[in-house]
Specification:
This is BOS complex subunit TMEM147. The chain is an all-alpha fold. The chain is built from 10 helices and no strands. The longest helix has 28 residues, at 98-125.
Length: 228
Amino acid sequence: MTVFHFLNCAALTFGPHAVYYTATPLSEYDTIGTCVKAALVYLGTTLIKLVCLATFLQVSDNDNFDPYQELLKAFIGFIDVAGLYFALTQLTHRNISQNHKFQAIGLGWAFADSLLHRLAPLWVGAKGQEFTWDYLLQGLEANANLVLTVSLAALGSLMWLRKNKPKTIVPIIYASAGVLATMPSIISYLRSGLGWDFPKVVGFELFSSLVMAFISWQLFSACQKPSL
């Protein structure tokens, strides 16, 4: 039963990434190389973030919400935006469209995040003797993170790669990207500041991921329309 539980949790955590790749044109255009490059950029970005966090953040003996520390974490979190910018604009890609490029980069980025942050806890915890919902919730959280990351990559491609954007929606693009970039700090505030439990936080992440995906899709579609 423990192995079966682990396999279920692993499928819920990592399966959607594989389904996304195979069920979309990403597999037809062989964008696996772009996904791998994005994953490597994510690992490098995470290393830089860890160095910054270890350098500038103070170690606290309690879990109380510290506005100054959280604000500093939010600023350091924008290193992810810089990493996505590098992946979108500086890496060499195969001859793929902008639509496929941001999806491949977002997919590789999200998969690397799940692999780095969820594989070890899943391997150790989900094989335990006592059943817990926490690892199933982690799988749902990974799905929400996938949607949020692809949405941020889509908005990044609009900000940095598309030139002929309707001027009326440019502020909305940047505001939406700002919300997505600060989402980890928002989640941290809900957990530490408001004391939300894990299921409630995951529910918020799933809901917000759907909302931001819809907004990103609408903005991307508006930029795809030919200007009159």
